[in-house]
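Hey everyone, long-time lurker, first post.

I ran two proteins through the pipeline my lab uses and got sequence/structure pairs for each. Pasting them in order. The first:
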Amino acid sequence: MTRLRHGPFLPWRAGPGRKHLAQVDETAIEKVLPKRLVDDIIRIALIALLVVMCVRIIAPFIPLILWALILAIALHPVYQRTSQRLGGRGGHAATLLVVAGLLLIGVPTVMLGSSFATHLHGVYVAIENNAITIEPPAAAVADWPIIGNKVHAAWTAAANDLPAYLEQIQPQLKRLATYILSVVRNTAGGLLVFLGALIVAGIVLTYGESGGRTMQRMLERVTGPVRGPRLTSLSIATIRSVASGVIGVACIQGLLLGVGFFLAGIPAAGLLALIVVLVGIVQLPAAIVSIPVIAYLWWAGDASTTSNVVYTIYLLLAGLADNVLKPLLLGRGVDAPMPVILLGALGGMVSSGIVGLFVGAVLLAVGYQLFMEWLDRPQEDTSAQPPLSD
């Protein structure tokens, strides 16, 4: 009863014997605690070392794995519809998608590369045989601000003796050729990684259900059973939104303008269409390609005025098509505003290249969702609590 009246029982209130017992217990704890702390530090260090070694081993394959996951998520609706039409044979559907993707991407790329190499070889042969003639510049070129005199002098030297002028600027040409070869090499390497990721994506699609459950379990482990499924759905929807709203719109616009370039008789129409696709992916307006083409159409084209007017209207409308398509496709089905998805895609692309389009958009969408949940969380009412006494 005494203990209940005077509060909880404490050893140092019950006499010298109890005080000695408390000192013994504290000494035992001081002996055991450092051992457990050292054991925990060793375990954490070993886990960290294992994680670092695993990351180093898998690092060369991270771009391939990321692209494969992105392609698998983006193509999963098409895979489901194809599998249903094939009677539920998922393996056949995945194989069909992979073969179709390889043909749609690989064949035009090989044809474009072959055409470009043939064109460069023809230019080289023409320069060697002195078969290229350049008209001298007009006197008004020298009046251009800042660069007029230099452009006029270089243009005049090239028009008078092109081989001698090329020999004069040979160091600059070597640096330019080195840069172009580096860009071509990186582009070819990225294309091979993409084609390899497409094959891996076919395998991922076949085992997509188990992989999706595993990913959801990981997110549930980190964020809880309520947020996990919602963040999984948000990530999937964001990847599909970027695939359709950024890359899809760029491909549609490149196709529309490429058809217009081909019908209008513009040289290197396929290369210009590819440039339009790249420009659309980096979120620049396609007008930076279509407007110079329209100027060339009126300056050097031999078609009638009516044809030029028709092609001009078509190219202008196709160049502005992204202003209509992007609001319809980008951010559709995503529980985040379109500017958030667009900013994430742009920032990710600047920091990590094309794959950053998807990674950046997903990270910013998830961060936005968590931030809004934190803002909407009700605050504790502290007004009714009594002040703390001294």
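...and the second, right after it:
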Amino acid sequence: MAEKKQVPLRISKELFDELSRWAEDDFRSLNGQIEYLLTDCVRKRRKKEFGQNNEEDAGN
């Protein structure tokens, strides 16, 4: 298993409350929900970048 790093995170009370409710709906801890969302965003960004690179290569 990959080593986990600890990162202090400061967020508004409103965002904290919303993420907490979302985590509860998804049966995750708040930490697990934040990690899930960040991982999903990174995966989508990589996919988008990969897709753009392939389109650029195909045009050349």
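Reply from user beta_strand_b:
Welcome! Quick read of the second one: The longest helix spans residues 30-59. The radius of gyration is 16 Å.
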